[in-house]
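User: Hi! I have a protein structure encoded as tokens and I'd like to know what sequence might fold into it. I'm fairly new to this, so please keep things simple.
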């Protein structure tokens, strides 16, 4: 099968399109005929060696954790899905080797959910990691009816999902973004505020008593978070480990079939949309990485693979 591989850490130039063996289907796993893969910042950070202290990489490795495709084979003791089912997954394993930038991929059944019929393959592949990050950060902080939530980075891949999910949970949402993205952030369900100097004052003008929950998806905003948090408020970050010393939660997203199914239900109910800003064919994975590294897209980036 065709796959993107890399044999050493480096920039996107280390990626090559190769012929590799098809992955074996282990117990509790399914093999997918991949239709699309999502591109996330963590993907190119892994290729660059940024997660080497945390995760073992077996070279040559195939990048990619987000995937959407058709179940091609099931392993022992798999009853949740059958051949021919259309699914999506945050297919992270305990090591890095066989990712989604390939014609076929195996994923643990505990990581996948059925693909919403309303989503195209690229949209389905773009949802799992970022959507789960947003969903798990909000639910762990107890966001619900009547909460006021500040989303740092409301126009980003995770932040855009967080705005919609928080609104679906019944919260009032304030979202930071550059002014030229305010119309999109407003359309997602948040009251937009410009980031930068004076941000805390602008948030306080909208929520004089402070906000109940702050979720940080960009980093470097802890001082502002603490300045606008109401007494007894909760906060979390996926980008700043220092948040724990300030009484917050530092989050790392987990694969979770139930949570991913909850996201699929929000999509089917019209409460969650998935915006794909750009897509690339498999052979242009390096270009997809560079587009992600630029960080200027409003929406997700995907790679198309199968027919």
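Assistant: Happy to help. Inverse folding works backwards from shape to sequence: for each of the 307 positions I chose a residue that suits the local structure. Here it is:
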């Amino acid at each position: 099968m065709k796959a993107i591989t890399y044999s050493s850490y480096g920039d996107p130039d280390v990626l090559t399109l190769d012929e590799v063996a098809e992955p074996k289907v282990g117990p509790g796993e399914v093999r997918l005929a991949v239709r699309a893969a999502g591109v996330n910042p963590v993907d190119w950070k892994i290729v660059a060696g940024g997660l080497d202290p945390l995760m073992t990489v077996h070279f040559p490795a195939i990048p990619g954790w987000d995937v959407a495709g058709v179940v091609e084979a099931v392993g022992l003791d798999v009853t949740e899905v059958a051949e021919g089912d259309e699914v999506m997954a945050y297919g992270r394993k305990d090591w890095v080797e066989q990712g989604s930038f390939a014609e076929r991929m195996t994923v643990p059944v505990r990581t996948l959910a059925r693909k919403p019929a309303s989503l195209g393959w690229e949209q389905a592949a773009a949802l799992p990691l970022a959507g789960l990050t947003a969903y798990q950060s909000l639910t762990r902080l107890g966001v619900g009816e009547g909460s006021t939530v500040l989303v740092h980075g409301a126009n980003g891949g995770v932040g855009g999902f967080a705005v919609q999910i928080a609104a679906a949970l019944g919260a009032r949402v304030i979202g930071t973004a550059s002014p030229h993205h305010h119309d999109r952030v407003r359309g997602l369900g948040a009251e937009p505020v410009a980031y930068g100097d004076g941000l805390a004052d602008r948030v306080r003008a909208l929520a004089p008593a402070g906000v109940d929950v702050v979720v940080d998806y960009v980093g470097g905003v802890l001082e502002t978070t603490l300045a606008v948090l109401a007494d007894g408020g909760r906060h979390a970050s996926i980008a700043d480990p220092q948040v724990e010393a300030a009484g917050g939660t530092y989050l790392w997203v987990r694969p979770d079939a139930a949570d991913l199914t909850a996201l699929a239900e929000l999509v089917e109910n019209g409460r969650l949309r998935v915006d794909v800003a750009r897509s690339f064919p498999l052979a242009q994975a390096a270009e997809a990485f560079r587009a992600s590294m630029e960080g200027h897209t409003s929406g997700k980036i995907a790679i198309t693979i199968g027919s």
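A useful reference point when you look it over: Residues 29 and 108 are 4 Å apart (CA to CA). Feel free to ask if any position seems puzzling.
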